[in-house]
Amino acid sequence: MEVKIGVADSPREIVIVSEQTPDEVEALVTDALNGGNKGVLALVDEKGRKVLVQATKVTYVDIGPGTAGKVGFAAN
């Protein structure tokens, strides 16, 4: 699933492909925006990397559908 995070004072958005469910991502975002986890939004991408964003800088979060099969000669 693709998650796009808009960050204040940044011209680009953060794009994460995550194995977390939309409900899990929504719960993490809501918790961070309400001051949980010390005001830090923490998401894990499909390769296991953790992405941390200060919740006060989050302008929007777009939780997209699952990613379709990849086409081409990409190696995992």
Secondary-structure topology with pairs:
Blueprint: E1 2-7, E2 14-17, H1 22-33, E3 40-44, E4 50-54, E5 58-63
Antiparallel strand pairs: 1-2, 1-5, 3-4
General description of the model:
This is DUF3107 domain-containing protein. InterPro entries: DUF3107. Pfam families: DUF3107. This protein is an alpha+beta fold and 76 residues long. The protein is 16% helix and 34% strand. The chain has 1 helix and 5 strands. It has one helix spanning 22-33; strands at 2-7, 14-17, 40-44, 50-54, 58-63. The mean pLDDT is 88.
Profile the largest sheet. 3 strands, antiparallel
Strand content: 25-35%
The 3D shape can be described as globular
Structural class category: alpha+beta
Q: Structurally, how many domains make up the residues?
A: 1
Task: Encode the helix/strand succession as letters.
Answer: EEHEEE
| Total helical segments | 1
Question: Which regions contain 5 or more consecutive residues with pLDDT less than 50?
Answer: none
What is the number of E strands? 5
Radius of gyration: 13 Å
Look at the structure and give the mean pLDDT: 88
- Biggest sheet: strand arrangement: 2-1-5
- The percent range for helix content is 10-25%
Distance N to C terminus:
17 Å
Keywords summarizing the entry:
5 strands, alpha+beta, 76 residues, 34% strand, two-stranded antiparallel sheet
Q: What is this entry, summarized?
A:
This protein is of the alpha+beta class. The protein has one helix at residues 22-33, and strands at 2-7, 14-17, 40-44, 50-54, 58-63. It is built from one helix and five strands; from the N terminus they run ββαβββ.
